[in-house]
Amino acid sequence: MKSTSFNQLPPELKVEIAKHLSPKDLETLAMTSTNHRALFQPLVDVSKLLHYVAHSEKSAVRYMLLKEINLILKRGSVTDCSGRTFEGISGFEYALWALDLDMCTMILNCIPHNETGHKVLVKLLAQYNKVNAEGIKYTLSGNPVTEKHFDFNNTIIKELRVGERLARGIRMSRDVSVVDQHWREGVGGAQKLIPMHVHLSYYPKPQNSVNSLSTLDTMMKFRQECVDAVKKLLSVGGSTSNNSFFPNALSKISKKTWLSSDSKLGKDFALYRGVQGKVVVKYGAPFEHTTTRNLTELSRLFNTKANDFINFQAEFEKRMALQNQPRV
Fold first, then answer.
1. Does residue 321 belong to any structural domain of this protein?
2. Domain total for the chain?
3. Per-residue pLDDT averaged across 292-321, rounded?
4. Do 127 and 187 belong together in one domain?
5. Domain with 138 in it
6. Exposed, middle or buried, 7 (CB in 10 Å: 0-12/13-18/19+)?
7. Is the pLDDT score of 253 beyond 70?
């Protein structure tokens, strides 16, 4: 069988192949020639938009949509910060699934008040109705899932309730290992599944990580790392006078985002929000009242967003009325 180079393939087959490339590889391919740029740039733009929506980068989304509003109707594939992979999804549909209603409203604000804008609005309303009726499909760890929107109840709220129950049991058993492990893996693991916009609003990455950390936890962690470092140094006949050998636990944490691929969230620690909104890294479970407060706040947040999702059709009706007004 005679081999065929990529350049010899028909354009429609090239596009189909390109859909399976990573965003970075797709952008590289588009830059290989003028013809490829013309052919693949639309796919690159859709991929970028989906990335920005999934990461709740509203300014970047707004910039792209003000240049080309029809991008919001285009479909593509995206893997978000939680590891969920969505195939054939639009940016608006992802924002609906994530309950990022601020993003949805911003998208509607980008729609021009003209015939093109009216057509876009009608199509977005159809997308909303379909999501509300049939849900969104994605895969997580190889498992297919269909749901209308992100499920707070069976993720973070469920794990916080378990943590609250375990914390009550500690008063009697005095065994903190079980509750601490659940805090790190159960609560922390659920926090990794939360959409980015919730992290940005409820668990924002602090500018000064040192001030955001639990002092006791940090000192214990740092002390243990220093002890391990000394043991390692002495085992090879070294000297303890070299201060640069000691690891700096604080700086290692501060260089990471909570949802980066190499984050230890869900393995070594979980997060909680303090009374003044300060995000705290915790290696062991916090006091019961802290877990209860976070549970109450996140339950309230979910109920608000779920109701906003249900009532979002009223926003469409308002926009439709504005679109139908005579244009001067």
1. no
2. 2
3. 92
4. no
5. 6-149
6. exposed
7. no
Reference 200, options 54, 311, 91; nearest CA is 54
Please indicate, yes or no, whether residues 140 and 196 belong to a single structural domain of this protein.
Answer: no
243 falls in which pLDDT band (50, 70, 90)?
A: very low
Q: Is residue 316 part of a domain?
A: no
- What backbone torsions phi and psi does residue 175 show, to the nearest 5 degrees? -95, 100
Sheet containing 75-79: which strands, arranged edge to edge?
75-79, 85-90, 136-140, 143-147
What is the 8-class DSSP label of residue 265?
B
Residues 21 and 133 in one domain: yes
pLDDT, position 277: 82
* Pick from 265, 268, 221: nearest CA to 247: 221
Q: Measure Cα distances from 8 to 12, 15, 111, 291 in Å.
A: 12, 13, 39, 60
* Rounded-to-integer distance, Cα 38 and Cα 42, Å: 8
In this prediction, residue 291 carries a pLDDT of: 93
- Are 146 and 87 in contact by the 8 Å Cβ rule? The answer is no
Question: Please, are residues 258 and 265 in contact by the beta-carbon 8 Å criterion?
Answer: yes
Residues 76 and 131 in one domain: yes
Give the whole-number percent of the chain exceeding pLDDT 70: 69
> 52 and 66 share a domain?
yes
User: Which pLDDT belongs to residue 230?
Assistant: 52
Cβ distance 293 to 302 under 8 Å?
A: no
Q: How far is CA 79 from CA 42, 57, 215, in A?
A: 19, 15, 35
Evaluate whether residue 33 is within a structural domain: yes
DSSP 286-297: --HHHHHHHHHH
pLDDT tens-digit readout, 164-222: 998 887 666 667 888 899 999 999 999 999 999 999 889 886 544 433 344 444 444 54
Based on the domain organization, do 119 and 14 belong to the same domain? yes
φ, ψ for residue 143, nearest 5 deg = -100, 130
| Residue at which a domain ends, from 149, 171, 193 | 149
